[in-house]
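Quiz preparation item.
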């Protein structure tokens, strides 16, 4: 690899994310968004309370656009795919932090913890089954973050129809089509005790996973999506 490769890659990434952001902003702006659990949306997303959000990877493209205006800090992997998604998200107002369960996760969680400990209604989130799956199997990073900070962990699910479903992707990525119906759902958040032990964290992880899967299945049935 010559010394220009990183520069060329960064320029290419910036170009792709700029074009993709412009296109998808116009695209997603035409969608009809319905919210289930609006009291949680009003309290934790647009309201003045801190929150840690957790969702599945399949809806990440739409959700980074949808939540951009509240400027959440979101964890993205250090992979090339993560470069693109983080660059795309940043253009919508998201504050990206880089790391995953396999690489850089501890440092990323430390940055998110510092972010949430500042005065103000700050939001943090990531996809719980990322960056490479298995799909719809939760990892415990955001649970640990909620435990350490005392900030509630809010489950978030999304479905849409008509939508492109990228069936070759491990997560069956969903991209709502223009003018589609998009449903975003919330349920009651978990308040996780700071003194919870490893067995307790695992129990919450299983509960979060089950809840998110139920939410996703309910929304897919509601919209008629067959991922």
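Solution:
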């Amino acid at each position: 690899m010559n010394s220009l490769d990183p520069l060329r890659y960064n320029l290419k990434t910036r170009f792709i994310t700029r074009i993709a952001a412009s296109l998808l902003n116009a695209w997603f702006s035409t969608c009809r968004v319905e919210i289930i659990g609006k009291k949680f949306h009003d309290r934790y997303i647009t309201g003045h309370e801190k929150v840690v959000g957790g969702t599945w990877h399949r809806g990440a493209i739409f959700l980074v656009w949808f939540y951009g205006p509240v400027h959440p800090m979101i964890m993205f992997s250090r992979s090339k795919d993560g470069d693109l998604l983080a660059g795309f998200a940043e253009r919508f107002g998201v504050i990206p932090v880089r790391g995953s369960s396999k690489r850089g996760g501890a440092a990323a969680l430390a940055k998110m913890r510092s972010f949430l400990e500042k005065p103000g209604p700050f939001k943090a989130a990531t996809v719980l089954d990322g960056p490479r799956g298995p799909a719809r199997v939760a990892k415990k990073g955001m649970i640990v973050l909620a435990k350490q900070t005392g900030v509630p962990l809010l489950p978030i699910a999304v479905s849409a129809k008509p939508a492109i479903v990228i069936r070759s992707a491990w997560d069956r990525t969903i991209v709502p089509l223009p003018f589609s119906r998009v449903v975003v759902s919330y349920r009651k958040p978990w308040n996780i005790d700071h003194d919870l032990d490893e067995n307790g964290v695992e129990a919450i992880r299983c509960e979060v996973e089950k809840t998110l899967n139920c939410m996703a299945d309910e929304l897919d049935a509601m919209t008629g999506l067959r991922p």
